[in-house]
Amino acid sequence: MSKFLPEKKKLLEEVYEKASSETSETSFSGILKYLEIQLRDEFQIVLSYKTFENYYKTIVENDQDYNIKTQILDDLSKYVDYDNFKEYCAEWKTFEHKVTEGASKVIVHVINKPLVTMPEFLTKQSNLGIIGVLLVCSAFAGNKILNDKKESEGIKQEQMIENIPTENTSKTSFTKMPSTGRFLQPENSSVVNVKQKECMFWDLDHYERTFCNENANGKKVIAYQSESGNLRKIMRPDTLTVENAFGKVWYVKSNHHVEFFNTYGQHPENDKTLKEATKYIISKYGKQKTPE
Known about the structure:
Elements: H1 5-22, H2 28-43, H3 49-61, H4 70-79, H5 85-91, H6 94-102, H7 118-125, H8 129-158, E1 175-176, E2 182-184, E3 192-193, E4 199-203, E5 206-210, E6 221-223, H9 226-229, H10 242-245, E7 250-254, E8 257-261, E9 275-276, H11 279-285
Antiparallel strand pairs: 1-2, 2-3, 4-5, 4-6, 7-8, 7-9
């Protein structure tokens, strides 16, 4: 057996799978013709559908080796978002392929445990009766009061204005003019401009606005822009499916890792241009392990 036969087999399967997910064609030849056009128009790769068909039937269907040129393997690896065939082999592990092949032989027993409703909990299991109901209601009421207090304090915090001059403030009050962002003294005094946060920096999964001359703990500070300022990293890629994410998310692949974002733009840390996620990318990477 060729040293790279399993890797070549898996690569051809992934190329075919991606092409079939992107076209409405259902026949084998129709999908391969679509693949030929995509390779030519999007990647400037010349490979006839007949040649790929020979590769696929020999290696995938008959499990026999076929001498494919290194350049062609590199080109097919680019189609499935790898730089070359060497990188594809480094990331892909034969063990994963064996697990996939044997998945149909694994039997999983699922035990459905009935849900316990609130009335059952109070009456059947805890024996608290009316006292239990009163305790639960008291807990809800306490949480409501606490949440209302936090919300009130949050509104007050948002209404605070930074950098108001402190000279003579003990004797003079300020009046906020509606929707102006400025404060006026009541008796023909000068206008005081409120300092705006006109810069931003990337903080884990979003842009945080800041003053341009402030220290952002060593993070790169750039001028605020409304479009890029709305960029958000999707921290739960395991929730993405073709049904809920196709046409709505963008991605970038770096160091064998795929990151998803909510809109088009540039990666905030490596400046790579984000690409719209295809059905293939969402299917392959949408259920990757969530970062700790």
